[in-house]
Amino acid sequence: MSKSEELSVLSTAPWFDEVVAGDILEAVKTPAAEVTGIISGLSSVGLVVRCGHAWRVSEPLRSELRVLLAGRDRQLYDRVLTKFAEHANGDFRPKLTMIMGATGAELNSRAIAAVGSGDASAFDRLVELVEGPSSDNSDREAFATARILESYSRTRDRRSEFMIGLGNWRAGRKAVGEQSFKIVHELGVRDRAGAISSHLLGLQEYSRGQLDEAISLIQKSIGDLEHLNDYSGLAMCLTSLGRVYKDRYRDTGDEADIAASIDCLYRARDLLKEAKPTAVSATLIALAQAYQASGQLTEAKQQIDDARKLQGDGDLAVRVAIAAIPIYRALDLDPQAEEIGIEALATAESIGLDDLTVARLLNITAATQRKLGNRPRARRSAARSVELGRRLGDSRHLAHALHTLASIQLDQLESGAGNLAPTLDEVRSVLIEARSLLAMLHDRRGIRMVDNTLERCEALELQPTYEDGREATHGPELEL
Q1: Does residue 358 contact residue 350 with C-beta atoms inside 8 Å?
Q2: Burial label, 318 (beta-carbon count in 10 A; 0-12, 13-18, 19+)
Q3: What pLDDT was estimated at residue 466?
Q4: Which distant-in-sequence residues (6+ apart) come within 8 Å of 147 by Cβ?
Q5: In 3D, which of 87, 447, 113 has the Cα closest to residue 251?
Q6: What does residue 419 show for φ and ψ, rounded to 5 degrees?
Q7: How many CB atoms lie within 10 A of CB 282?
Q8: Which of 58, 106, 181, 300 has its CA 20 to 30 A from that of 403?
Q9: What pLDDT was estimated at residue 136?
Q10: Rounded distance, CA 83 to CA 179, Å?
Q11: Is 132 left (phi over 0), alpha (psi -120 to 50) or beta?
């Protein structure tokens, strides 16, 4: 075996020691007794560099040789990658971690194993690692994994495409990530990446109000996860599907949809009995909202109270409060609803939460304060919710927050709030903006809600006025 061939084989490993080098060089029948001399000779002429007790072929030579070997003898290339991955996931891991860090060593070893073996289960394990609990670096880890996969597979295949999609999704570029997920989904491979892609595509359609399309995509994901016996992922998808069925029921009134929603959510809850409180609470919240939508308020309160027992003091408490407040209001427990909102806002402030979750909480708190007659506080809460919605670019939330603000402004006009109240034209302008956003989202229920409030505007415009110029109060206060 020539020295150039041995160097090409060694170029496949990001780092190696004498044991790793001996094993991968065995693939080209290099005697183990010669390994130390080979490494020493290559090191003496600068073709390999050392870090601690490990070496690697110098760049850019390493990348060039790796590409040439993969093109010349793919079977040998894959066999060597697999041998390296076995060591990287075993006896060589401590040395690799010292050089690349724990995350770098884990990502490289799993990605190289997936490329070298071509085994679907190896890629599933890589996906499980990268797609696991989110961290501040989760988007960067996904992009880094995509680069490793592309580097070793020499192509941007569905595996790296999925990681690119996941990186963009987690970085907030969901529309960009969606394009990658479509590629993965359309290839129809039944694995964890395909299931996740279908689920996230379904959530995108859900956010646009395309409920039938969302159901179809999430059902595809559920089928894949059942095939893979991935019960944690299955529970998550069942929770999403339950939410979509609930919203379709609110649009159509079809009892089959609300029955399907509740069934999905109970299945998810049963799968999550031993899961973390965060996962269980998300399903309990969705189940409470499904019962609320169907008018079963006692059941709704029972489920949301169970979620409150698990909420702790972090952002989960804020998400639970968002679901609890409307249920408590519907049961005429308005003071308790306001207290839940105030506590949740204090929690959000204490942990520095300033995102869509807070925007929604402010909107729901504004509606509660409005019902309790505290219009100045209600208007301030609604205005903050609108401001956050604009900054975050969430059209659905912004539309609902604008409607809440306009409803409070109408209350002020009806009650003759003087200089503090906006003009009727200003209120109408806010409602028209909300309606336009909801129309783009195909949110029929939201459009009906705004149209009802626009009718209040028209009725107020036609009202008789008192001698001092105040308009007479028109009709009962409408609940959001």
Answers
A1: no
A2: buried
A3: 43
A4: 160
A5: 447
A6: -65, -20
A7: 23
A8: 300
A9: 54
A10: 35
A11: beta
Let me know: does 358 contact 388? Beta carbons within 8 Å: yes
Residues 400, 405, 406, 408: is their CA dihedral positive or negative?
Answer: positive
What is the pTM for the complete model shown? 0.83
Which residues, 6+ apart, have CB-to-CB distance to 213 below 8 Å? 202, 205
First to last CA, the chain: 79
Residue 119: both structure tokens together: 């085994």
Say how far apart CA 284 and CA 262 lie, in whole Å. Answer: 11
> CA dist 184 to 13, 67, 195, 213, 236, Å?
28, 25, 9, 17, 20
Token code pair at residue 437: 């956003």
Which one, of 184, 279, 355, lies nearest residue 199 by Cα? 184
**How confident is the model over 391-418, as pLDDT tens digits?**
988 899 999 999 999 999 999 888 876 5
Whether residue 190 contacts residue 222, with contact meaning beta carbons closer than 8 Å, is answered with: no
Phi, psi of 211 (to 5 degrees): -70, -40
Q: What gap in Å lies between CA 37 and CA 47, rounded to an integer? A: 14
With contact defined as beta carbons under 8 Å apart, do 320 and 285 qualify?
yes
| E strand residue ranges, 145-207 | none
Residue 477's pLDDT is: 33
User: In terms of Cα–Cα distance, which of 441, 453, 442 is closest to 404?
Assistant: 453
User: Which class for 370: exposed (0-12), middle (13-18), buried (19 or more C-beta within 10 A)?
Assistant: buried
Number of Cβ within 10 Å of residue 113's Cβ equals 22
Q: Which token pair is 304? A: 């949301």
Helix H or strand E segment including 54: strand 54-57
Rounded to whole angstroms, the Cα distance separating 232 from 149 reads 26
* DSSP characters over 383-408: HHHHHHHHHHT-HHHHHHHHHHHHHH
Q: State CA 173 to chain mean position distance.
A: 11
Structure letter (DSSP) for residue 474? -
| DSSP string computed for 293-305 | HTT-HHHHHHHHH
* Residue entry with tokens 């044991």: 19
Tokens, residue 327: 């249920």
Query: What confidence tens digit (pLDDT) does each residue in 45-90 have?
Result: 999 999 999 999 999 999 999 999 999 999 999 999 999 999 999 9
